[in-house]
Amino acid sequence: MPTNTMKAIRLHDFGGPEVLRYDEVPIPELKPGEVLVHVRAVGVNPPDWYVREGMTNVPPAMRPPLSLPIIPGTDVSGVVEAVAADVADLSAGDEVFGLLRFPSLEGSAYAEYVAAPASNLARKPARIDHAQAAGVPMAGLTAWQFLIELGHDHPSPFQETQHHPMTLDAETTVLINGAAGGVGHFAVQLAKWKRARVVAVASGAHESFLRELGADEFIDYTKSRPAEVAHNVDLVLDTVGGPDSSRFLRTLRRGGALYPVFFGDYDPAETAKLGVTTSGTQVRSNGPQLAELGRLLDAGTLRIAIDSTFPLADARRAHERAARGHIQGKIVLTVA
Prior knowledge:
This protein is of the alpha/beta class and 336 residues long. It has two domains: 187 residues, Quinone Oxidoreductase, Chain A, domain 1 (Alpha-Beta Complex), CATH 3.90.180; 124 residues, 3-Layer(aba) Sandwich (Rossmann fold). The protein is 22% helix and 27% strand. The chain contains nine helices and 15 strands. The strands form three sheets. Strands 3, 4, 5, 6, 7, 14 and 15 form a seven-stranded mixed β-sheet that branches. α5 links the parallel β9 and β10.
């Protein structure tokens, strides 16, 4: 192991992909409960470019403080290099993956080494490589906590009530908007694992991919308005969310629910009239849940799709790829 420094991507200013700088920085020191991970791959997620832009898409009152310079990123896969004295379940040489410290913005994953809370990690599934594993944590846990099990009692910053996932079974129809993306393609598979009928919404280029994952029906939003095509849906998972999410309310049957991954505004009078509810949460790091996803990946029940990979030094190009949209699966940074 190098004695003192490593390469990492840092932000010294907020802005576009050009502000991502490849720097030489100290290797982090371990605190109690942490392990030092030699990073092999890093998953790229929307919060990474939200941080890069200065969180301008978040209302000022809810915007977390950001101190520059900062190493962005939360999703890693790698090999344990060292462990703190109080860590018993992991040892040097173990292959692990995890979502680090989320929803704080202190994951510092865009680096050759990262000090990671052991509780945020799980053993990497043997069936997949590090680049694939790095694409799983945030997207997979988001789909899991929205659809399967919340797994924590932290209040959501976006609503007063606790999120309680709807029970999914063969009698449930789930519409997934943005089905080809990171969260979406896991959500399709998890809903099918629970035997639900899945309606996938994406652009036409992704139809064969989503049908391979188990989608029962496909709606090409470039040709049809999903809100006018789909009816009597039990649950909508809108992985896009935001101001336009309310258009999906009318696809729901009475008693149905809409889960926006990115918060939106909904008219209480409209939801009451339609007899539907909206609910969301904020994904949180969770090693045991990640281990459950790992078992499904090892069993072949889940698969992870990789849109593209870039060397860590080319994080700028990875963010430029993200900005172009129409992503199928995950974008990943690889670390030599």
